[in-house]
Amino acid sequence: MTDKATKDATTTPTTTKSEEAATAAESKKDAAKKKLEANSAAPYPDMGLAQEIHRVLINQDFESAQAVADKIAKTLENPSLYETFQTYLVQKFPDQASQITFLSKDELKAMAEAHKTKLSELEVALEEAKESAGDMEVMDALVAIARFAAKSLTSQEAMDAYQKVLDLPKLSSGKKMDCYMELARVASFAHSLPTVDDTASPPATSSTNNNNKTTTLASVDDWIDRADKLAQSGSGDWDRRNRVAVYKALQYLLKRDLGKAAEIMLQGIATFTSTEICSYKSFLIYAALTNLLHLQRRQLHEKIINGPELLAVAHDIPIVMKLIRSYYDCDYKAYLHAMVEVEDILLNDRYLAAHASFWMRELHLLVYKQFLDSYQSVTLAAMAEQFGVSVEFLDLHASHFIAAGRLSAKIDKFGGTIVTNRADWTNAKYRQVIQKGDALLNRIQKLARVVDV
Questions:
Q1: Is 375 left (phi over 0), alpha (psi -120 to 50) or beta?
Q2: Residue 3's Cα: distance from chain center in Å?
Q3: Tell me, what's the pLDDT at 13?
Q4: Per-residue DSSP letter, 200
């Protein structure tokens, strides 16, 4: 019995140490999880919802409109956004809107009152943090208010709340980058909303219209530029810098600066984490299309068609990859068929829809140039057969590009042929070298005279 008691006494501390180690490990795991959640991007405003709203409006898809309205009411609980969406549908499509079950004004007012209560609670927590806690707790309280506003209040209220965070005297550069990126999303979401006639149906829940497109603080570009300056200076961790790069690439995409957008997006495929601004599938589409117009054939094959980053996820964007492969394989009929499917993708994306005609024009021009580079002259009938279109369509389409100076060719209507006018790049470069050489020799001779004197 004594030996047994001694054995029990010796094993008990070992079990206790084991439990303590397990508890410590769990505590570290919880702390790491909390740190990761604190550093992760805020999920609101929901840019995926902005895409859904765009698709409803562009396609006049009133079946999806009900799902969007329910999401705004139940997930975001945003009465101001709900009213903007409802008012637009009622004003533009009264017959179809009558089939959608909207919340009543009383329900929206009740939601707005609940938000006032929630906001008061957050402000009380802020005051308590100012009185009895440190700078970190005050910052966390202000961020909580800003993120609540981004989710459930108006865009202007959200921007004002984030500005208070930025006004803090001891805000780290990483937190500043987070605020700038979240402000950029707030402004972007506000710009994506439809325009409504406020005089026709005055808001019942808020004096501030969520559809304020002239934000008083700064534009989307301004916020992204501020975040980018911090990233360029080395501030923030690698995740924040990668996310800022994605934000900047999307702005380049909106400005049609495809060269810069293509380069950033190609580099960002392997490190993409910015799901708060766009989905990974959408980012792959942007990267593939911009690089199709930007890269030369050899680079296109190396970096897109056989690139390890896109090759691993090509199954997620089959239509776009079909377009790229048919272009590289010179399968022009398949290319034009793929373009029809790609046009639907362009129109249903809020970043691409505004420039859909530009994209279709550039994709046509790209393939025409590739085809004509192989010939000094070719009949319209032969080219039309390769593309699977009529001669009349090809004649009209190609003549527009030629007249605009985008296609180096001319159409012989009598002979029914297209004759290419290839620029002699070798001789042009030779003449350029001679001219620059002459200018350099003249400068050297002038310098020699000055030295001799």
A1: beta
A2: 72
A3: 44
A4: T
Q: Which two tokens stand for residue 90?
A: 């009622």
Give Cβ neighbours of residue 109 (< 8 Å, ≥ 6 apart).
79, 204, 205
CB atoms within 10 A of CB 414: 6
Sheet holding 409-412, edge to edge: 377-379, 417-420, 409-412
pTM recorded for the entire structure: 0.80
User: From CA 73, how far away is CA 107, in angstroms rounded?
Assistant: 10
Q: What separation, in Å, do the N-terminal and C-terminal C-alpha atoms of the chain show?
A: 115
- Which residue, 158, 132, 163, is CA-closest to 210? 158
Q: Coil, strand, or helix at residue 172?
A: coil
Whole-angstrom Cα distance, residue 345 to residue 354? 12
Residue showing tokens 């527009």:
400
Provide the angle, in degrees to the nearest 10, between the axes of the packed helices 280-294 and 356-372: 40
Instruction: Concatenate the DSSP letters of all residues of 253-312 into one string.
Output: HHTT-HHHHHHHHHHHTTT---TTTS-HHHHHHHHHHHHHHHS-HHHHIIIIIS-HHHHT
Residue 35 corresponds to which amino acid? Answer: K
* pLDDT tens-digit map of 201-228: 444 444 334 444 444 345 899 999 999 9
Residue 422 has pLDDT above 50, yes or no: yes
Name the phi and psi angles at 411, rounded to 5. Answer: -105, 125
Tokens of 154: 């108006």
Cis, bond preceding 45 (omega within 30 deg of 0): yes
Q: pLDDT tens digits, residue range 115-147? A: 999 999 999 999 999 999 889 999 999 999 999
* DSSP conformation letters of 107-143: HHHHHHHHHHHHHHHHHHHHHHHHHHS-HHHHHHHHH
> In this model, does residue 39 exceed pLDDT 70?
no
Per DSSP, the three-state class of 419 is strand
